[in-house]
Amino acid sequence: MDWLNHITSALGSVGDDPERVRVLFVALLAFLGFVFTLAVSMMVGAVFDPLRKRIGSLHDPQGAQTTGEVKGQFIQSLGKALVPKAESKKTAMLLRLEHAGFRSPRALALFFGIKLLGFVFVPLLFAAAIGFVTPWTVFDWLSPIVFSSVAAFVLPDVWLSRRVKRRQKLLRHALPDALDLMVVCTEAGLGLNSAIKRVADDIGVQHPELADELQLTIMQIRAGMENREALKELERRTGLDDIKAFVTTLLQAMRFGTSVSESLRVFAEDMRDKRLQRAQEIAARLSVTMLMPIALCMMPMFLLMIMGPSLLVIMDAITSMGSRG
């Protein structure tokens, strides 16, 4: 914590000297101007790059593009400048987008394009709104503009993380129902691929996320991919431990020649037990979760009702003693 004390003392000494305050303000303003100019130059370069225009014309020689497609290509061209160059970071980001359900090859560039647009335009809109509401000086605008630009750049990552968690929660909730249907299908005599296809068709209304993943797995198998590779792709796209265990169960049954229906029955029972345990854990946490609202809202009222009359008697006694004195 020594470094924090040094920074605090340095800022305090700067605040005491008006000349240092002006120098610091000019330096921050120059830095913001540099960042803004760099972002605008990246946007202009992405829009007016002749090479990208030529490639776009080759993809669409007739020029018949809808307004949504034009906007998407514009944002995509902006985001290409921010796409990580390192292959490991790029692969990790693509995997996060696949976990969120975005499997388009343009998803990565669109995501970074949205971040760049937010970083440039949100501070401008915020500054314009402040200018209409209050007559602030430029120095007063500095902190809100910096905060809004950073928030606009970080919020897409927060939204993506929340979407990944929500989608994985839906997949985890849908898996036991899909396993029960798959057990019925395999015991009725259907093969593994036919059972997966039938389950994907039947659960499409109630669990569209899992149905979409199973449909994609069947399409990959029909396109010539081996069952093992297609199941591994299902595990990779979802990033869910329960689906990983499901794929491992199927692969072991296929490798050792055991009954797929029996393996699925045992695994389905295990998944139902896990879902029941998760529900019990959530129910057990409710008492702890309700403790804070009760302590903040109800306990002061109870204390006031219990101790209020005693406090009034004590105050009257103190007042009478003071008047006698």
- Counting helices, strands and paired strands, the structural category is mainly alpha
The run of helices and strands is HHHHHHHHHHHH
Strand content: under 5%
Number of helices: 12
**Strand tally:** 0
Poorly predicted residue ranges = 57-68
The mean pLDDT is 78
> How many structural domains in the coordinates?
2
Principal-axis shape equals: flat
Share of helix among residues? Answer: over 70%
Major sheet: none
Radius of gyration: 30 Å
Oligomeric state of the chains?
single chain
Distance between the termini: 54 Å
In short:
The chain is mostly helical.
Report on the structure:
The protein is mainly alpha-helical and about 325 residues long. It has 2 domains: about 15-135, no CATH class; about 170-275. It is built from 12 helices and no strands. α8 (about 190-200) packs antiparallel against α9 (about 210-220). The two termini are about 55 Å apart. Mean pLDDT is about 80; it is low at about 55-70.
